[in-house]
Amino acid sequence: MLRLNTQFSDNIDDPNREGGLPIVGNSVSTLTDELLWEGVKMGEDEALAEIYTRFANKLFNYGTQITHDRDLAYDIVQDVFLYMVSKKNQLGEIKSIKNYLYSSYRRKLLRVLKRNRKIKLNEDYERLDGFKMEVEAEFYALTTPLTVDVKKLLHKISNDLPIRQREIISLYFFEQLSYKEIAGIMGFSNLRSARNLLYKAINNMSEVLKKHEDILFLLPILLNMV
Question: What is the pTM of this model?
Fold first, then answer.
């Protein structure tokens, strides 16, 4: 479990701070992205702590799909949040905290990997076996007409995709990010490129499953299992 000292060192004596986080009788865990982000910019410890609780482990797990270096993946999580602390007065407006964090995290991680020559300048991944999809044990245990071999086939098809296609499947289906958000995170110049890559990934899976038309209908199920 990741942990971070979420105290703003200059919180109490900030002369520009006015008022407090507008909770209005609600728990901080129920606040919208807009209110939480405003709280971070105001130096509210509760807002930063809530964002950390929601996303720190997700960012770490995301990073370990890109690099084998778990210590580095952890350190970059800290860097992202420490940047938010130190630059809180310079943070702009955002619509999605998740999008901001994933974009910042991926960019910082790749910068360090390239600086340390863990990956080449034109590459985005140190490990090529990341973003593998796991078929849950409960699915194998389901009483269905499908054989174990068919279930293993579904698993293999998804994981035979190139890592970049596996990443976009992860971001779109499992993190529920939009094409625009994914384009920003993965460094595409426009959302059409993100959409095309996702379609290509799904088409590649479908092409293999055409040989098994009796189980083609299970593709949507597979993409909602992780």
Answer: 0.72
pLDDT (average), residues 84-106 = 88
Contact present, 3 and 80 (Cβ < 8 Å): no
Could you give the number of structural domains in the chain? 2
Contacts of 61 (CB under 8 A, 6+ apart): none
pLDDT higher than threshold 70 for residue 18: no
Given a contact cutoff of 8 angstroms between Cβ atoms, the answer to whether 153 and 212 are in contact is yes
One domain for residues 109 and 150: no
Q: Which residues contact 78 (CB under 8 A, 6 or more apart)?
A: 4
Alpha-carbon torsion 150, 151, 152, 158, what sign? positive
Residues 118, 50 share a domain? yes
The single-letter code of the amino acid at 53 is T
Residue at a domain's end among 127, 154, 186: 127
State how far the Cα of 226 lies from the Cα of 223, in Å rounded to an integer: 7
Measure Cα distances from 114 to 48, 51, 154, 188, 208 in Å. Answer: 29, 28, 34, 19, 35
Closest CA to 4 of 51, 41, 36: 51
Cα(167)–Cα(182) distance, rounded to whole angstroms?
Answer: 10
